[in-house]
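Researcher: Next entry in the queue.
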Amino acid sequence: MPEYTANYKLQKQQENEFVNINGLNENFDIIDATLSKISKLEKAGGTATAITLENITEESGFLKTFLVSNNNNGAETTINGKPIYKPGTTSSPILTEGKAATIWFDENGDCFFIKASAEGNAVAANVLAERTFSNSDDTGIVGSMENQGAVIIKPEACNIAIPKGFHNGEGYVLGDTELTSNNIRKGVNLFGVEGSLDPMSSILGVTKAYYAYAGDTISTGDFVKFVTGVAGVGAGEAEERQILPEFESGCFPVLAATALSSTEVLLCYMESVLTGHLKLVVLTIDGVEFSIGTSYTTAIWGSISCVYLVKLSNTSVALVYLITNKIYSAVMNLSGTNVVSEGSRQRIYPNDEFAVYSLSIAPIDSERFVLYGMRTISEIQSIYFTVCTVGGSNTEGFTTQICSNSTYYYHSISFTPDGLTGVCLYSNDLGGTYVERYVITGTTVTKTHSINLNKSAASINSCALFTLNSYQAILITNENVGDGYKNYYRGIYFEPDNVKSVLVSPALLMEEENYGSIYGCVVEENKMLIQYTKSGLYNKIFARIVTIDREVPTAYTASQRNSNVCNLIKLEGTKVLAFGAGASSSAAFGIVLNAPGTEVECLNYLYETQVAKSTSNDDINGIALDAAVGGISIGANASHNQITRVISKL
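Model: Structure for this entry, 650 residues:
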């Protein structure tokens, strides 16, 4: 019986048999057919990831080369249902259409492995663009790395990114021979070089005289520094100084004022009853001197009863005024220390039925300010808030009515400096007297607290209300508590996040009835300065400090001076500018009051800058041209002493 070979089934010849021609021919045919298959690559069938091949023997070491029909892009792939991997891994190889791939079978893993044509793990991003390479995935791969060549980097103040790509080794960071220690300011490290240059302040040659600072001794040639905001108390009684020229009889020297900065105040006045035009001018306080800028004549004129100035920004101020019980507003535009133009006049309440009788006003921000007042609608008096928005030269009001009644005997309002909190007091013919707190959000006004004083309207002659901060206020009234009308003061505390309000019993402020209004200015969060007159004492002004601790107020000793100037404008720190008509003149006068402690100081100068000897190279403002000794800053003998000329960079 014939025997056959294991692989190609060739018939073996037996020892006891004659040579079989037919058997030999069959062997030759098998060999010929097999050789024809070896010399021709089989093109893979199936799909890119499910390949089919013929003449596959699933025995370890079986080797076959075939032509790839489709790209598999590295996806999991099978051959005749068996997975194909990279050698020694379970990762699928990348098969590329038109390329030959050699595989062998592994019985242990029951899978095919591809025979690698190259080795390596480089990818296109690792090889220079337009250069080709091979890795364990493929051959003839084109690199994509950008050729940056020689990059030259110039140092800057911020970090500079090094571009990604190939660098030929000829690039560099620019150097500078001027990068030396003596060219760098002392205390500064620049690119690892520690500076040693000790700088001096530049001097532009502006010469001006200043008092030497109290207790200081200055020699000619000394470096000096400016000490701004010095109390400036001089020996003897302080004198008011004229700040505007005399006006015609019947005109008010100053109708309104607002601080633009700690040394600049915008004043509004009417110098002639013939024209009736409002004028604006900036008062500048500098050293021991003051000056006024160029006056601006507005287009506003007529029977004006009330004028208010509201600072919106450093370059714009709202001018609000009443003419025949109608309220108007116009935006005034500033450049430096001069008013240069105005917007069109806008009536805040266009309804002619509204007759406005009184107002209070406060700024909120550059686009909003808030009004408070009383108006009559169909013979019914209403107390209201109005949040006014400003856009360019236009003003629009959003009104919130507080209450409405046939008669209000008195009312008062006070705002915080930011205009976001208002405290209102009013009394009506129903016998109630109320203190209420309101907050402003956007254009909406909301009442948060209310307290009844349990006082009849007939018992209170006049009142003044001052809001020190968002939750504390001081109320000053002229009222009869059983022994005639006298001035009393109360502290008010509004509980945060609670509708509860605390009001202390009235404390006596002064025995006499006050002659005229009480003026006040908040100088610190819990401290204010008030001014008032007394009955029978004409041309006498009394000033005193009032503080508040929660709801408990304290009034300190009053100072007295010969004056008529009562209006108050906050300046820097605890300084306040008092201004108004002179005692025997229709001109405007002013004096600075200072409240650093519990006593009111009258300063001889509206504002003052002095010079002291510099103790640090980092704090130099100029060079003294004269020797000078400072005076005494406090006490009954306080006075200036000597003046030095200073050449400075200002």
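Model: Confidence is low (pLDDT under 50) at residues 233-237.
Researcher: Noted, moving on.
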